[in-house]
Sugar kinase (Miniphocaeibacter halophilus), 2010 residues
Amino acid sequence: MKKIVTLGEIMLRLATPNFEKFNQATNYNAVFGGGEANVAVSLANYNNRVQHVTKLPDNELGQAAIDSLNKYRVHTNYIPRGGKRIGIYFLEQGYSYRPSKIIYDRESSSLATATIDDFDFYSIFDRAEWFHISGITPALSKSCEEITLKALQVAKEMGITVSMDVNFRASLWDIETARKVISNLMQYVDVCFDGDWPLGFRETTPDGTSLEDELKLYEKAFKNMSKVYGCKYYFSSLRKLISSSSNFYSACGYNGNEFYHTKVYDVDIIDRVGTGDSFVAGVINCLVKGKNFKEALDFGVAAAVLKHTIPGDVNLVKEEDVYNLLQGGNTRIQR
Amino acid sequence: MKKIVTLGEIMLRLATPNFEKFNQATNYNAVFGGGEANVAVSLANYNNRVQHVTKLPDNELGQAAIDSLNKYRVHTNYIPRGGKRIGIYFLEQGYSYRPSKIIYDRESSSLATATIDDFDFYSIFDRAEWFHISGITPALSKSCEEITLKALQVAKEMGITVSMDVNFRASLWDIETARKVISNLMQYVDVCFDGDWPLGFRETTPDGTSLEDELKLYEKAFKNMSKVYGCKYYFSSLRKLISSSSNFYSACGYNGNEFYHTKVYDVDIIDRVGTGDSFVAGVINCLVKGKNFKEALDFGVAAAVLKHTIPGDVNLVKEEDVYNLLQGGNTRIQR
Amino acid sequence: MKKIVTLGEIMLRLATPNFEKFNQATNYNAVFGGGEANVAVSLANYNNRVQHVTKLPDNELGQAAIDSLNKYRVHTNYIPRGGKRIGIYFLEQGYSYRPSKIIYDRESSSLATATIDDFDFYSIFDRAEWFHISGITPALSKSCEEITLKALQVAKEMGITVSMDVNFRASLWDIETARKVISNLMQYVDVCFDGDWPLGFRETTPDGTSLEDELKLYEKAFKNMSKVYGCKYYFSSLRKLISSSSNFYSACGYNGNEFYHTKVYDVDIIDRVGTGDSFVAGVINCLVKGKNFKEALDFGVAAAVLKHTIPGDVNLVKEEDVYNLLQGGNTRIQR
Amino acid sequence: MKKIVTLGEIMLRLATPNFEKFNQATNYNAVFGGGEANVAVSLANYNNRVQHVTKLPDNELGQAAIDSLNKYRVHTNYIPRGGKRIGIYFLEQGYSYRPSKIIYDRESSSLATATIDDFDFYSIFDRAEWFHISGITPALSKSCEEITLKALQVAKEMGITVSMDVNFRASLWDIETARKVISNLMQYVDVCFDGDWPLGFRETTPDGTSLEDELKLYEKAFKNMSKVYGCKYYFSSLRKLISSSSNFYSACGYNGNEFYHTKVYDVDIIDRVGTGDSFVAGVINCLVKGKNFKEALDFGVAAAVLKHTIPGDVNLVKEEDVYNLLQGGNTRIQR
Amino acid sequence: MKKIVTLGEIMLRLATPNFEKFNQATNYNAVFGGGEANVAVSLANYNNRVQHVTKLPDNELGQAAIDSLNKYRVHTNYIPRGGKRIGIYFLEQGYSYRPSKIIYDRESSSLATATIDDFDFYSIFDRAEWFHISGITPALSKSCEEITLKALQVAKEMGITVSMDVNFRASLWDIETARKVISNLMQYVDVCFDGDWPLGFRETTPDGTSLEDELKLYEKAFKNMSKVYGCKYYFSSLRKLISSSSNFYSACGYNGNEFYHTKVYDVDIIDRVGTGDSFVAGVINCLVKGKNFKEALDFGVAAAVLKHTIPGDVNLVKEEDVYNLLQGGNTRIQR
Amino acid sequence: MKKIVTLGEIMLRLATPNFEKFNQATNYNAVFGGGEANVAVSLANYNNRVQHVTKLPDNELGQAAIDSLNKYRVHTNYIPRGGKRIGIYFLEQGYSYRPSKIIYDRESSSLATATIDDFDFYSIFDRAEWFHISGITPALSKSCEEITLKALQVAKEMGITVSMDVNFRASLWDIETARKVISNLMQYVDVCFDGDWPLGFRETTPDGTSLEDELKLYEKAFKNMSKVYGCKYYFSSLRKLISSSSNFYSACGYNGNEFYHTKVYDVDIIDRVGTGDSFVAGVINCLVKGKNFKEALDFGVAAAVLKHTIPGDVNLVKEEDVYNLLQGGNTRIQR
């Protein structure tokens, strides 16, 4: 079996328990997570061979991050050790009208300060068929931008399919810089997730815009993107927020020919973080296994829907759990 | 006050906390529970004199199971000690679209390997007015089938009212065997719970069948059952699953003359396990106390509705809590 | 900045975790709270200068109660130490159809047994602009009634604005006594919360009464009250209980001229206790800062709505959190 | 089997976890305990028939206290319900040089305000062979003193053996009052625990007094007591405190003829509370079962030693655990 | 790097927290462990390539057991899935005079019911240099005895070094059977741990026997064993129990020529389970890396000493931690 | 009452619970602490007026750090908000032979990146009588070195007594740099803690050096220091490590005239962190209150001894607790 490679920062996530606010917390639940690492774990849970690449400090917290990947059968052989610290993010779970809050604390992290020499991409991509990256990594630092570019070039050179979750984060960089950097990277990308708005192809709409009207904008954006970039697929998830605890969730995609919108799920939320990564992992899983893009979208959405009910960053469902939901979602106790 | 006797396996229940999946759990919440034992505790909480019969290993876990019954004032004098192990079940609580999962681990348990000589039913039933059993016990082993039969024969001989919760479990036996064994036991049964489908009197219906149509099938099933078996009452609960966290719940019954369907409750769920047992206990409680079968059904359903909000296997509500719900269900804080 | 003074009992709150019933609890979550202290903390979180007055025993629990106020920047210089015990209340959180239960255990508490000599109100009110009290304190004991009266008299004498949350509690006294005592205190009150029903100006209505009809009764009550008492504002919150976990919440008010009713929120509940106090604190915060009574009501309701999602007695939101909700309530993760 | 009756207050014990100080605690571990109730549970764990008598409020906390006794097979049929509150005590566990702290909060408890009419001692003592009481109950209130006296008189009248743990508590009453009240009660006592110092027969000694010298004082005290009172046995435990976590523990006794001192154990402490009660229960267990007073003392001390290692108020060891220690105390893992 | 293979049952360990007794526990801490798996994890923590072989059920608990090994970088490719259940053991941690208790619940486990066809040892041992097994596996069932024998034969045939921890468990089989079975297996063993007493070469001694006298018996036993069996090394650990919380620990060994006894450590205990496995792993680690048998013994003992302070079954120390202790054991905070 | 000012970094401390190693932790206990802040809290617990100065980020974690000081009555008015992050340290508690481990994560913290303009020392020192600082702050960054120097100059100028805990940390800077920087600062210091070795006046000694010999070296060092620097007092604590859980602890001091060594305590350890700060706070407390330097040393050592038994960074004992230990240390339960 060929492998899937993911690259990105994995952080220590410290979340207040029981919906406590930061100022109430006397302890924090600790897991590890990060966009691309979350994709990696989910893909491993679908029985893919997956390898995650990042850089971590040479201390026990770095080792614990690695072992959190090992536990879920993600390969960790190409993770250089060094730098000053592991990135951290603090999470206060919201509820109902109260939004969740995240305090990022990834300043000077080992990956942000890594250099291009830390990674030998020819070895990393040996026997790989897919490479997944996000728009967060190039936003971390100038050297991370170079690393991303280099990774993409080598991947392309080695004939590996490339997917990118654009995932613009206003706290990391401004939209103009992001647009410039990501646009340049897009030449290496085969499968693009959530690129429409960040890359300037879709306007945000006022509250109350109908789903139909939204979808028209997505379709138009994808078609225009396809004139500019050479991707095989353009995908985006659609989330309508009812509250911190309840969302409507679906996704749409375009294969250069056909636009498709999935079923809309009304999801109740235990843990919102990492649901986008679950969508991405679900889509990649299907494409790798030869499903068509509609099947991939349906699967990705159902996988993300289930992730909303699982505490932590990573999606622990298996293919059979996703298919159970796709086939109607019997919620009788499984005995 | 005459006593109610229940017979069946009580297990150690180990549940992952905070909706964690099995592979995330670093600790398990531990309580004891089992269909008939749950009925016993609930009846004791309604101030009945109740005695539970089972077999448990002669170790600290067996003692803890007994003491969990003692705590709630269920008599435990007729529980032989011995055999190799206490049955266990592992529970992963579902949420929203994610179903709950139970891993049963009752192989070679003390009750499953008990023999007919472990129980002196004439002593057990001394001063009893009611005996409750389920279709799970005869499914555990051949000797458990014999024990069940013997218990029913002695109960009948001593003029004790017998109720049975048919409760078919596909993981324990196949439907053909179950049907044959249970059918034979039905000759001793006065009050039958959830026997319609397992005994072959009701077809399952496709999703989307209206409640009215469902109820017609239940009514027909009960009437046909009443031609075959000599029970005084036939009861069944109806559950429409919206999600793991939300169900519509009601029940219907037939007294050989009249068919009755209760109010339908839209319940939010903290703990789904043991709600059926709470329904049974609520019904028995009313029948023992001379209420009519409609009052019993109403009470049973309201009791079960409240159980959905209580963590653990057993229903801890008191009669006044159930009547509060029956009288409109004021949820203002009770100060 | 002038200060706001609050007076009332602060208790140790012991709540069963995870929706356990009292008989299941093997540990209790401990915080401190009490109507007026909750108002104080919330006001401090809006950057007001606040001072809470009460009496607490001279032991570590009394100190812990004080330090819980210090933590949130409420001044505690005028809390005499002595008496036998800190008041306690035990809380069992309800869910869905199951009501929450509170067992008050404030018998012989330090405040209930305090005397008028424990407090030097001229010093306490030095540099104060607002004094807030509730109808609970005079209900605690005869001496507490005297203390309340004295406090109000001195406040009035010193030209301080006085607000009172009438907050009738049937477990503390009967409605006739309450009405007599509170009516007498009303002469000192400028801003009256929830006085309509307890003071005999509004009838309770049957379930199913429409909101419109309810509001007419409130408007009438406020207008009649304004003929009897000389308050500047009359405010009341309106709560329609769907279940223990879900309420409709709004508020109305009258400024002697105009009647106003806020938006109605459909709130999901993590912790119902202290939400009324959050409403009061929100209103006071706005009035102190020169907002008009409609702005105050809108803010108070939004603040209370957010409090429903925060565990514990006190509201930890900041002004910006409330304004976020007032401006549409974006519940996207705040990164 | 005849029964043993115990009488005394059972309280809710709220202990800070993990050696936290009161001002750090955000939750409290909750169990129920009290001197005589602890004796009752320990005796039940040695397979005696035991009945505990107290008064508890008619609320869920009172019920939980009762059910904590039911769990351990102590009979609770003669516990009147009523009064205002359950007694509480707060515990901060000490360690090494830091002493444990207890804040008693038993003011106005249901037992302290009980009256003699709450108890029908003729029924209570039906089929009893032993009655155990402590010097704490008469210290709670005047009415409790009367209840104690009445109980002792009826016990004596019915020919029941009476034991008393004098257990003087300076926080409840002064030594002069205690001495007067207890001295009067001593006429009904057959087995006296720890009466030497409180009743004025033994001086306290300076630190550094040798064990030999201490024992001489105990022997002398017992012999003098035996001239005044008509007890069959006088017992006392000896505790030398090394630190909060480590004590030397032994006991001595006198049967009117012979003085005996047990082995001295060097105990490490997990929970110091209730160890004296474990000693008493161990001694009573042996005397009831016909062992001689030396065997009883040895057993009582070993039982108490084991209790030091068990969290909570009550001793959960069984006879075989105590005999294992008496026979050398193999601490190899029992598999 | 060549790999080390271990074979044996890995169980779910459920331990009561905070020194609670079984009858107090409302939750259990869950980890996975088992003699040979513990050896595997420890060896992986010393940066060896390690592969563990066992059989586990095809459910989430089986997967969680596997992932607990993956986490610590133990290879799990040769673990067949099937059978009825994962073995479980329940642990009650002792303290001071109170012994720890283990309730084994491994009846009908997947490994106990595995057959010889479940394992292809030629593939399993490919590129292996060492194979470790214990005397527990052949005790589990007749088929496990056959599996063990087959494994040893293939290992020998492939020139792999074989170590066995004899580890006699009286709860699994009687000493006569054990002796017969193990003696036969010894022909394949190169390194024998703790075989002296079980194989009949050393008498147990009375309490109070001096260490010198003990060591003479060990030396004699090893020399006699070396006349019977062809092992290269004989090792045994020596444990003198002061209490459940404190032991003296050392080890001795014989290389066919020289007898060696290590330093004796006075260890305080957080978790006693798995310390023997840590000793074994420490010794194997050194022998694999070419250290002499004295170095191996010193390292093994120091590793085991450190394991006594680590909660759970497995030893998480690294080589540098062990060498820190061997070089004097600086316990200053490592910053 | 004049105030005491402390200056230094306060960090979020994240400690693994239950002696877990970093790689086992699924949650972290969270408190706030830091050398000088710990001194501040302890002094506030002795009823001094104390003000802590630091810089913290303008987010909820910064606010929580401030409120942790407010809770214990430390004034926080002079804490500028800004910068990128709060410093963090991760703690793995050691036990017995296993050392504790700390991973510092204070890179780019708000204080480390603060500038001299963030602090108006003339306002800060208004009405102050004492200023305490440590050698950690100048080690954090060049600007922190400047801030320290400026603070000391202003303090001196305003006639405030200055104490410094030299507290050399090899992970922050090398000894040569430290020596140069600290030596320069010493001109402003009146009371010097633990300066002997870092400033080059005392050699470290081999293990096994007798306490007498050690003390001679301390005495010599202090006398030599007093020739170089103009301090009024030189103090040092002496710690002999038996294990991670047990230390011998004492202190010595010199007042320019007399050398004094306190009693040696054999301490068992729950939390080793912050014990040195407790010593410092104890000494300052006595000197501020006019005690002589021997009384101050005795008090400081006893205070530090008690801190070893308290979880978290800060010492929560009160003066009466320290005096109880100084007067013999009765560890009987305080009821």
Chain A has a mean pLDDT of 97. The radius of gyration of chain A is 19 Å. Residues 3-326 of chain A form a domain with the UDP-N-acetylmuramoyl-L-alanine:D-glutamate ligase fold (CATH 3.40.1190.20).
